[in-house]
């Protein structure tokens, strides 16, 4: 059962178990730090990345606890500045390529998930119906939040 949700630019949802989302966000942020110009966005997203080596513990409902604070994996890409969304998609693509090249059976599930996430993004670019590939039964309305750097 999904416990973490990412809302994409057209309101469709990408939803998975917290652990899958945790690793995907880790793969993506690890690639973000290699993209020129994405440093501020990396610094913004990094605190949302589950890191066992920092003592993070699963909170039981789609996030984790770090230093007695609950951190959730849910976010709406529309709340990020347009340049940061571009960085996110570049990093997701780079993470996918890196996992494919590594050819590690342990990462096959993440390759599938990143491919599906990037397929959703391609559908958004083409203007396709968000319900064609959506992990939710609704289109999430935009809240108009502006989070992170670059606004």
On the 0 to 100 scale, the average pLDDT is: 92
Find the count of extended strands (DSSP E, 2+ residues).
Answer: 6
Rg over C-alpha atoms, rounded to the nearest angstrom:
15 Å
Number of helices: 4
How much helix, percentage-wise, in residues? 40-55%
Descriptive overview:
The protein is of the alpha+beta class and 151 residues long. Helix content is 41%, strand content 13%. The chain has helices at residues 18-32, 39-45, 82-102, 108-126, and strands spanning 4-7, 13-16, 57-58, 63-66, 69-72, 75-76. A three-stranded mixed β-sheet has the order 2-1-6. Strands 3-4-5 form a three-stranded antiparallel β-sheet, with no helix packed on it. The longest helix is centred in the middle third of the chain and has 21 residues, at 82-102. The termini are far apart. The mean pLDDT is 92.
Distinctive features:
single chain, 151 residues, alpha+beta, 3-stranded mixed beta sheet, 3-stranded antiparallel beta sheet, 6 strands
What is this structure, in a nutshell?
The protein has helices at 18-32, 39-45, 82-102, 108-126; strands spanning 4-7, 13-16, 57-58, 63-66, 69-72, 75-76. It is α+β, with helices and mostly antiparallel strands and 151 residues long.
Topology readout:
Blueprint (H helix, E strand, L loop, with lengths): L3 E4 L5 E4 L1 H15 L6 H7 L11 E2 L4 E4 L2 E4 L2 E2 L5 H21 L5 H19 L25
Parallel strand pairs: 1-6
Antiparallel strand pairs: 1-2, 3-4, 4-5
Helix pairs in contact: 1-3, 3-4
């Amino acid at each position: 059962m999904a416990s973490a949700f990412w809302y994409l630019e057209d309101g469709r949802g990408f939803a998975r178990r917290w652990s899958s989302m945790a690793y995907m966000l880790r793969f993506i942020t690890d690639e973000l730090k290699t993209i020129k110009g994405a440093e501020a966005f990396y610094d913004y997203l990094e605190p949302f990345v589950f890191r066992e080596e920092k003592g993070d513990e699963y909170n039981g409902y789609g996030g984790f606890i770090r230093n007695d604070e609950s951190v959730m994996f849910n976010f709406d890409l529309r709340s990020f500045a347009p340049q940061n969304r571009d960085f996110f998609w570049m990093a997701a693509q780079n993470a996918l390529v890196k996992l494919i090249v590594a050819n590690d059976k342990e990462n096959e599930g993440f390759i599938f998930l990143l491919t599906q996430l990037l397929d959703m993004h391609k559908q958004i670019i083409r203007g396709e119906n968000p319900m064609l590939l959506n992990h939710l039964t609704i289109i999430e309305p935009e809240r108009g939040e502006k989070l992170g750097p670059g606004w």
